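2 proteins. here.
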Amino acid sequence: MTIYRGLFLADGVSDQPLADHIRSLCQSAERTVDIVTPNLARFDPPPGLTVASRVQAVLEVDSEFSVVFVHRDAEANDPQLRVAEIASGLEACNCPLPFVAVVPVRMTEAWLLLDEQAIRDVAGNPRGMMPLDLPRHSRVENVANPKELLKEVLFTAADLSGVRRQRNFTRSFSDQRRQLLGRLDVDGPIGQLPSWQAFTDNLNEAVRQLDP
């Protein structure tokens, strides 16, 4: 069995659980890919924020990769502009590897608003009954600020009282977000979202080009 190596550049540290989902999706495409997520903060000097500078910094240390995965939120931009930005960055640093753009519409948090029970579990109140009023799957990518909405629904799901408890809960958002990303059901409703479909289609195309 051939084991390939894939470089994954996450948009932020709390996005790194996506690496496990990428590994699983590659396996479903009948390729075994070991996903490497370098800690760029430990590079000396740290690379810049551009795709080109980040990829180049990694490849100067370790160039034994077969495919590159780059995660960037679309935010207010057309997702295709992000894909083009990633492609241009790889071209600028002369990276010849196939790449897969992981581009959620607006923010990754939109992908985390699909599983009500996971939200209740992560909020620490799995049997809570407070209505969360989550957006419909067909509308979740139209939410203007999914990050703020996710904070609100996690707080509502926790059903907390007291200023100190509320403050401590707010501080734990990054960890909660990371947990939700790790729990993401790749076989669930997320498969209905155009951004996820584009990502998985590109992944399947890229990894199937690897020699079996």
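next one coming up
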Amino acid sequence: MIFPKRALVVAVVFLAAGCQRQAKISAEQAPLSYEGADYRTAAEKIVLGKRLTIVLDCTGCHGANLQGKNMADKPEDGAMYSPNITLKVPTYSDSELDRLIRHGVPKDGREFWFMQVESYQFLSDADFAALTAYLRSLRPAGKPLPAFKFNRVEYKDVEQGLMGDAQAQIRKYRDRQPVDLGPQHAWGRYIVKTTCTACHNNALQGWKNFTPDLDIAGTYSQTELTRLLTTGEGKTKKDLGTMSGMGRDHFSHLTQREREAVVDYILARANR
């Protein structure tokens, strides 16, 4: 027979153990997301979504107002237009937007190219919901732009097999991801998978004649790499071209904790 006092002690012990197990399970199952993904109001949700359009480089391809632009670097290479998102989003349901952005399937079923859905496939539900909320908050503006088609420079990458359509890219990035360096670097790896891979390839091994393997980050100190991801300033050369622009215009919008997580992961990978 268990006396009431002893029964109370046993119950407390089992309850504590159960809570510890539940906390452990919850921590293990907690989805990785950007800071702010614990939003409680519609306004907070939209704030995160707006920041994500910058961090994820949506504004880099579609313009600061997301009304689309000619993405060609040089006029002689030919025009290459991104669509006006403010006009496109109202024509898509939430599920159709998900299939487009995270799965690379437009609602008309056409073959899809160029947008980095291979990186966006890793976005958490909370982050994607925030992105969608912000896009839906935009008032339709501007005008429709010509349909997307590759210009001469980008088409060479397609011909040489350096770039596939959305489905090929998604499979490649899903099957070989940046190295897993353990739970202490899981958050940094998540942010890297949704951002850095867009330019530095699926496992951060770089693209031929475009971007280097991110092992190069091993030549940077933590302070130097943080500065690059904040101001765009390189270690030995202030202007690193595209990377400086990404640091200055996009990664500068990471929170301090997000940036620290990215730097820690990138340096751990380089020095593994």
